[in-house]
Each structure stands twice: as structure tokens, then as C-alpha cells.
Write a structure and sequence with these properties.
Layout lengths: L5 E8 L3 E8 L1 H37 L6 H32 L7 E3 L1 H16 L4 E6 L3 E5 L1 H17 L6 E9 L2 E8 L21 H7 L5 H11 L3 E7 L3 E9 L3 E3 L3
Parallel strand pairs: 4-6
Antiparallel strand pairs: 1-2, 3-5, 5-10, 6-7, 7-9, 8-9
Helix pairs in contact: 1-2, 2-6, 3-4, 4-6
The structure holds adenosine-5'-diphosphate.
Adenosine-5'-diphosphate binds next to helix 4 and helix 6.
Length: about 260
Amino acid sequence: AESRTLEYQITLFGENDRLLLVRDFTRMQRLERMRQDFIANVSHELRTPLTVLSGYLETFSDHAEQLPTKWQRGLTLMRQQSTRMEHLVEDLLTLSRLETSDLETAVEPVAIDQLLDSIRCDALALSGNQHEISLDVDRQLRIHASDKELRSAFSNLIFNAIKYTPPGSHIQIRWYHDRAGAHLEVTDDGPGIDPQHLPRLTERFYRVDQGRATSTGGTGLGLAIVKHVMLRHQGRLSISSEQGMGSCFTCHLPVTRIFLVSP
Ligand code: ADP
């Protein structure tokens, strides 16, 4: 027999009356699992043909100068689009792994300060040293977490700060702890986000400016990945922003995961 997921809610009326509400989530859960399996399978199946296409496009590009100009332009466009699809498939696979795999097998002590040093280098390379990135980190603060997942979450936030702010912008990264837990804060002084978009930013494929987002090469899955990584670590993502003033994305991790090392 199939096990069912039920939720009971009892409401009291006056002295003696009770209302019992029973909700059956079994069907919803089954559909959700089917959705997750479908996305995981499709992403997996797309991977191999995409690798073959990208490989050949790369080879053709090595000999592009022998082609007529019109074809060269076509080849460049095909390469850009296949790279975009590869990123999309990778992000979809990452999300479906986050939704289905067991976190505890991946937990280890993570030195976030070193992780942030390395992400900062990658971010500066992405920006072509056009942004200023300052780091203010507690080097004694460590965390029990998945190194791979936190790297993916924190890089998404820091790379977004590069992608959505003009050259010359300043990005401030802070890693600190207080009584509530550990916090990774990424603040930029870029164009900011209209407040009406904030509640929907972590939805899959939600973008503020569809046209611009395509040119930045994003997949629309970055913040959904950050949110899932936080949920898996019993943490959360908070976002504040004001148009024209910049944005601030903060990952909060629970106090139970942190420990301190001597300097
Ligand atoms: P994408 O792959 O499009 O970057 P994300 O989920 O990472 O997707 O981000 C969703 C949207 O949030 C982006 O398309 C962008 O409009 C907005 N956004 C994210 N970070 C910033 C930022 N630092 N400043 C302004 N807008 C941002």
C-alpha cells in the first residue's frame, strides 16, 4: 500500500465545537517527484549531444578565417548559443541534484575565507579588473557545510554583482558571525532592483529585464540555486535593494553549523 502524506488542522469553535480539516498532499508530492525526475532526465540526455555540437563548433572556429564573413558570424552565434545551452543544462542538473540528494554525505569543515579569496579572483577575471571588490572576512570563522554547494551559491551572488553593475562599481563582500549565526553579505552600488521584483527573484527563470539578462549570459536559475543551497543548510537568503542605490544579498547560516579556529 502507498504511504500517504496528510496534514490535520483542528479549529475550536466556542465551548464544544471542533472543525477537523484533513489535507492530502500525496498526489501533489507524486507530481512534484515526477517533475523533478523529468527535469533531471532531460538535462542528462541533452548533455551528450551538446558536448558533441560544442566540440565540432570549436574545431570549425579554429579554421574560421577560411570561411566567408557571413558564415563566420553564424559560427560565432552558434558557439555563443551552445555555450548558453551548456550553462543552462549544468544549472538545471545542479538544481535537480539540490532537490533530491542527501546533504549530510557532503558536509565537511569549510574554510570560507579561502573559498572567498578564490571566488574573488575568478570574479575579477570575469570583470576584466573593471570592478573593485573588497573583502572583509572573519578568518577564524569556519562552517560545517558542503564546500561545493556553498561555492556555487556564493559565486552566483558575487558573479551577479559583476554582471548587473557597470564597470567602476564597488562590490563589498562580508563574512561574519553573531548570535544568530554566520552571514555572507554581497553588497554592490549598482543600479539596484525595483522592489516589486524582489519577492519573485528566487523563482526559476525569473528575470527583471529579460532582454538584458540574455545578453549577460545568465540562465535565470542562479538565485534559485542559492535559495536551495541555503534551505539545505537550514539557512536562508535575504535580498534588499533600492533602485539607483545598489543591492545587498545575504546568506544566513545557522549558529549550529559554525565553529571557530584559533588565529
Ligand atoms: P540570471 O542567470 O539571469 O543572472 P539569477 O537568478 O542569478 O539569474 O538572477 C535573477 C535576476 O535578478 C537577474 O536576471 C537580474 O535581473 C537580477 N539581479 C541579480 N543580481 C543582481 C544585482 N546584483 N543587481 C541587480 N540585479 C540583479
